Amino acid sequence: MSRFIFLTFNGLSFGAVYAAVALALVLIWRTTRVLNFAQGAMATATAYVAISVTQATDSYWLGFVAALAAGLALGAVVRLTAFGTAEHAPALNTIVIGVGMLILIEAVVGMIYGAANRDFPASFSTRTHAIGKTALFSNQNIFTVGSVLALMIALAAVLTWTPSGLRMRAAAFAPEIARLLGVRVGRMLTLGWALSGLVGALAGMLVIPIGLGLYPQAMDGVFVLGFVGAVVGGLDSPVGAVVGGVTTGLALSYASGYLGSDLTQLAALVLLVVVLLVRPSGLFSGTPVRRV
Amino acid sequence: MSALLEVDGLCAGYGRAGVLHDIALRVEPATITAVLGANGAGKTTLLRTLSGLIKPTQGRITFRGADITKVPVEQLVHRGVTHVPEGRGVIAELTVEDNLRLGGLWRRGAAAARETATAVAEVYDLFEPLARRRRAHGHQLSGGERQMLALGRALVARPALMLLDEPSLGLAPPVTAQIMALLRTLRDSTGLALLLVEQNVHSALAVADEALVLAVGKIVVRGPAAELEHDETLRHAYLGF
Predict the structure, then answer these.
(1) Nearest Cβ partner of A170 from B74, B91, B139?
(2) d(CA A64, CA A123)
(3) A15, A94, A236, A258: which has the fewest Cβ within 10 Å?
(4) ipTM rounded to 2 decimals
(5) What is d(CA B145, CA B179) in angstroms, rounded to the nearest whole number?
(6) Measured distance CA(B157)–CA(A183) in Å, rounded
């Protein structure tokens, strides 16, 4: 039982990270039908920004904030440079551009910072609290779940209640109608990419310190698991992305805890196959009709 | 006196194929102009060109005395033109309330939110069924309710000119009659000018002041709606009844 509790907390913590990556992917997918393969690399790049800023200012938290800001900026820049003209292109084109951006970003980061694995400090202590002999969670785990949750609530509030949020939803669901009502759709899509970059950057700042270390390809594996989470939840649904990400985190934590850590990747694959067999469009892809 | 909307020598189309040829028309404030014609005559293309969704290859569009030929789509609502596209243009994923609020989002500044709220409240007064279904999503509405919502959303923008594409499409005759009566009320009470594309010739001519008939991208007949309604050769030749 105590092992189960530990694995659950561990799974929730990683699940929060996968949920953030999944949400970053969904934010872009549902507005532009682009699957951003560079999402992981972008997050890694922002973590390097954090290191530079922390070294320059001696403040960890200034670096943390700088990484989030860099995520916002990088998201907007990547859309405006690489994807802006490709949004109506066939899916294969956008995939090639995404993989190209992935390689480019990782290469540039490698040229500037080197390919070596660097220590990357966690926001809080990673020592696990325990009651008696039952290991529970670390402060970093709490911060991970808490900050992802806070960001998601903030994002949902912005999208639901602010004028810009309404503009973004209109631009996503019905670009032509939105334009006729005065919404600058291109600007809204760029804003979506920026928010996606921010969410991805947070995921990187949370997960790179725990077990990964910082190197140019650090987020590649996390990206794959976040993608699994997004597909499990249904690529069109932000709620689905969150549920899918957490489900993935829990499933992998139990699999590696009870079956051995060699089977983690395999468990992700099994989860993906099972969900796709039962619900091919994902758990939360509720509306069969997208446009009327 | 200059008209609200003046179109001169307008040509437009998709790719290299021309659809509209040398279109000229005037729309005065507080009038309803019906655009009639068979399928494929270019009625929808005309509206899409006027609202900037299609760039004209030649010609000039003047609104309130200013040349708007090259004004981007997103800017036209600021100047007082709204376009209610065919198929009602309701965003199915958004609630009635959000759809309506969207009509006012082009406004900026401190008073914007209040002005939009007032306009939304007026629309609820005008369309009882919408007021009862504020939290319903677009896809839960009936055809008539959707048309009301599309019209209501355009009204929230408080336009001077509304381009309306087939409001009667797929609606039961009593609902169509209601909508047409409402258009007349709007014209008389707010001074709104309407350019109304319709397949339903009877209801369009009944409500319109002026009418023009498009055939293969050209205006072949124009005149007061009441006259066109009684011109039998015209009806046989172009309108099929």
Answers:
(1) B91
(2) 9
(3) A258
(4) 0.91
(5) 10
(6) 12
Q: The dihedral of CA A50, A55, A56, A60: what is its sign?
A: positive
Q: Which of A170, A184, A291 sits opposite B74 (nearest CB)?
A: A184
In Å, how far from its chain's centre is CA B72? 18
pLDDT of res. B240: 66
Question: How high is the pLDDT of residue A289?
Answer: 44
d(CA B176, CA B157): 23
Q: How many CB pairs under 8 A join A and B?
A: 72
Produce one character per residue of A13-22: b if its CB has 16 or more CB atoms within 10 Å, e if not.
bbbbbbbbbb
Task: Give the pair of three-digit tokens for residue B192.
Answer: 């709104």
- Taking only the tens place, the pLDDT of each residue in B88-135 is 678 988 999 999 999 999 988 888 889 999 999 999 999 989 999 999
Sign of the four-CA dihedral B210, B213, B217, B219: negative
Q: How far apart are CA A180 and CA B164, in angstroms?
A: 12
Q: Using a CB-CB distance cutoff of 8 angstroms, which residues of chain B are in contact with residue A185?
A: 74
State the nearest Cα–Cα gap between B68 and chain A, in angstroms. Answer: 15
Amino acid at A251: A
Q: Which of B77, B90, B138 sits opposite A182 (nearest CB)?
A: B77
Distance CA B117, CA B139 (A): 23
- From residue B234, give the alpha-carbon distance in Å to each of A50, B35, B50, B72, B226: 75, 14, 26, 37, 13
Query: What is the greatest pairwise CA distance in chain A?
Result: 64
Beta strands B193-197 and B32-37, pairing class: parallel
pLDDT at B88: 65
Count, residues in chain A: 292
- Which H helix or E strand runs over A251? helix A238-254
Average pLDDT for chain B: 89
Low-confidence ranges of chain A (pLDDT < 50): 287, 289-292
